[in-house]
Amino acid sequence: MPVFSAHDGTTLAYHLEGEGEPLVCLPGGPMRASAYLGDLGGLTAHRTLVRLDLRGTGDSAVPDDPATYRCDRLVDDVEALREHLGREDVDILAHSAAGNLAVLYAAAHPARVRSLTLVTPGGGALGTGASEQDWREAVARREGEPWYATGRAAWERFWAGSDPDDLWPDIVPFLYGRWDAAAREHAADDAHQANQQARRAYYADGAFDPAATIAAVADLRAPVLVLAGEYDGGPSPSRATRMAALFPHGTTQVVPGAAHYPWLDDPDAFSAAVAAFLDSVPPNLRTER
Question: How many CA atoms lie within 13 A of 209 on its CB side?
Answer without folding.
Answer: 9
